[in-house]
Amino acid sequence: MDQAKRDQIISIINDVNDMTIATVRDDGYPQATTVSYMNDGMTLYFMTAEDSQKAENLANNNRVSVTINRDYASWDDIESLSLAGLAAPVNDSAEQEKIGELLLKKFPEAAQYEPEDPSVGLAFFKIEPAVVSLLDYSKGFGHAETLMV
Asked: CB 3.0–4.6 Å: which of 32, 81, 90, 124 could bond 68 by disulfide?
């Protein structure tokens, strides 16, 4: 992937607050959920309750698909990402601290939502994209490029 495409992808990731993540349920059906995320370059991080359906799905099958979409005024402005990768739990305390710092930098208001009960467990996840589909309608209606990371 050339640097211009990488920069465009990272720009979209940096500018958007929420992604839709699709995980695989035990019954084989996909489950799509909108979550807020943080990033370091193209690496995506998110947190969820450790007893959530997402966390359970990822414990059984760590393959994910993600969409990240910029807001747009007209179809000529559509610019978005669809990516596939593997979600990995983040158990290292130093990396969890980094995620917390990224969270507060992107979402300063998150500090007021810290759980009062420390027994409420959060699961931290990291997604490293393997393949990215970059939609850029400024290059023509439906223009998409599939890029290997």
From this structure: 81
